[in-house]
Specification:
The chain is an all-alpha fold. The protein has helices at 57-68, 74-81, 87-95, 101-114, 121-133, 137-150, 155-167, 171-179, 190-202, 206-216, 224-237, 240-254, 261-272, 277-290, 297-309, 313-325, 333-345, 349-361, 368-380, 384-396, 403-415, 419-432, 438-450, 454-467, 473-485, 489-501. The two termini are 56 Å apart.
């Protein structure tokens, strides 16, 4: 919502009627606007034209007039501009005028004269939604009745009504709206049922949605989507006990369905958040396997992360093998990274490397994270040949070795007397990083000196000076002693001169 917009006064009158016959009610409205004055619903956040980039100038002008002109004068101001509007202009302006519902309704009526009172169904639905989201429910129903006369009402209209009542904390009225749908020419079927259940669950009221479903399912048979919506609601609320009850009801009502992946996903994800959740998850997971059913990749990603937290390699392998053998979903780079990290944590470097080879064979390409996890582990375990092989492979594949890992690699290679590998990694560091180089650079020079590779130590000391990397006095002192011992004092003097002049 734009910073310059003000919310409509909750005690003000409703926006003007859309039709002159608005007072002739053929069906009772589920409530009256006077009810608004006795509640404090949460205020929605509306998008603003001020925050919308690349808005056409005409639409921006319309939005500006609607936002900054009182409803009593907005039609006159619009007339004075001599703007001609299309259906698309009206829709675009309405979408960004929720913060000024009274003026927006006047604009809608004004633009209707230009469009021969032939607004699009989408524009009508925007008006219904705008009025509902601002809690002008009488005016909202007036708009719905006008839509009915034109034959423009649809499930989308009622989906908006459900959502508006629910966010106003008026679930009972949302259910009443569902009850009168057929009087407005919309079927009260399972699709409409799912729309209402979804609106209630999205607002964190899954218990009310579940109660409503139990009361109506003898009249309207729920389907897989119904239960998937409920289970997603329990997942969002972290209610594992209620999720188990809903899951049992789902199995009783519609049975086991291999295509009901979203429901299984949400159910198992909810169990993961409960105490002793992983044990329960594995129990239900095995039951699903026996019934030929499985969750989707969302669950596998979360479950594998949970296994990684506790180094549960056995559980992770069961999940992984099931996912692959059932051809449930193709593991992506992120999933492979989780498995490689877990194998590394469990000190299974061969299996981790095998996973890297497997992902390439399966057409899934490793990224910098993949290589860095393995590189870090191999360096920490001092497996130099394998670590150096991974380093070369990742550089060749244009993946970036983490600087911290590179620094650790240089230290480890020098500690174990492998100057060649240390120098190669150091060269990569100075070519690809431009900060935090001093520590590792001094380590390289001092390490080469300790390995009795004096000419190379001098070479890289001079290179550091030339690059503006600080060579410490301690490193210079070590080089001085080494050079003097082999009769190369002048070399040190020249090095010192360069050091001082930088």
């Amino acid at each position: 919502m734009g910073k310059n917009h003000k919310r409509p006064n909750r005690t003000s009158s409703s926006p003007p009627p859309l039709r002159h016959d608005h007072h002739k009610r053929r069906h009772p409205s589920p409530n009256t606007d006077s009810d608004r004055r006795h509640q404090t619903p949460k205020v929605p956040s509306f998008p603003s034209y001020l925050e919308t980039p690349n808005l056409p100038p005409k639409v921006r002008l319309l939005c500006d007039i609607i936002a900054n002109t009182s409803s009593s004068t907005v039609e006159r101001v619009l007339d004075d501009t001599a703007i001609r509007v299309s259906s698309e202009d009206v829709e675009d302006a309405l979408k960004l005028s929720y913060g000024s519902p009274s003026s927006a309704v006047k604009f809608f009526r004004w633009s209707g004269h230009q469009l021969n009172d032939n607004h699009s169904p989408y524009a009508w639905n925007l008006v219904v939604d705008m009025l509902g989201k601002n809690f002008f429910f009488d005016a909202m129903w007036d708009a719905v009745k006008s839509m009915r006369k034109k034959g423009l009402q649809s499930l989308a209209t009622f989906a908006s009504i459900f959502s508006s009542y629910v966010i106003a904390d008026r679930v009972r009225e949302a259910i009443m709206a569902f009850d009168v749908m057929e009087q407005y020419g919309c079927p009260r079927d399972v699709v409409a049922l799912n729309s209402l259940v979804s609106a209630i669950c999205r607002d964190g009221k899954t218990a009310q949605a579940a109660d409503f479903l139990r009361s109506v399912k003898d009249l309207i048979r729920p389907d897989a989507d119904t239960y998937a919506i409920l289970l997603e609601g329990w997942e969002n609320e972290g209610n594992s006990g209620a999720a188990k009850q809903t899951f049992d009801e789902m199995v009783m009502d519609i049975g086991w369905d291999p295509g009901n992946v979203a429901a299984y996903d949400s159910f198992l994800n909810t169990l993961l958040t409960a105490p002793d959740g992983r044990r329960e998850v594995m129990k239900f997971f095995q039951t699903m396997r026996d019934r030929g059913c499985s969750p989707g990749i969302k669950f596998y990603r979360i479950a594998l992360q949970e296994c990684a937290k506790t180094n549960d390699l056995k559980g992770a392998q069961l999940l992984w093998e099931t996912m692959l053998s059932r051809n449930i979903c193709r593991p992506d780079t992120k999933l492979y990274n989780s498995m490689i990290a877990l194998h590394c944590s469990c000190d299974e470097s061969n299996l981790a490397r095998g996973m890297l080879d497997e992902m390439v064979c399966n057409g899934v390409f490793p990224n910098s994270e993949t290589y860095n996890v393995l590189f870090k582990f191999l360096i920490r375990r001092r497996k130099l040949e394998e670590a150096f092989s991974i380093f070369n492979e990742m550089v060749q594949n244009e993946c970036i070795p983490d600087q911290t890992n590179c620094n650790a690699a240089v230290r480890t290679f020098l500690d174990l007397g492998d100057a060649y590998k240390a120098i190669k990694v150091w060269k990569y560091i100075i070519e690809n990083y431009d900060s935090d180089l001093e520590g590792t650079g001094n380590l390289v020079v001092a390490g080469l000196r300790d390995l009795d590779r004096i000419p190379e130590a001098v070479k890289y000391a001079e290179d550091m000076i030339a690059r503006g990397i600080k060579l410490s006095s301690s490193t210079l002192s070590k080089l001085k002693h080494a050079l003097v011992e082999v009769g190369k004092g002048p070399v040190y003097d020249e090095l010192l001169r360069k050091w001082k002049t930088r």
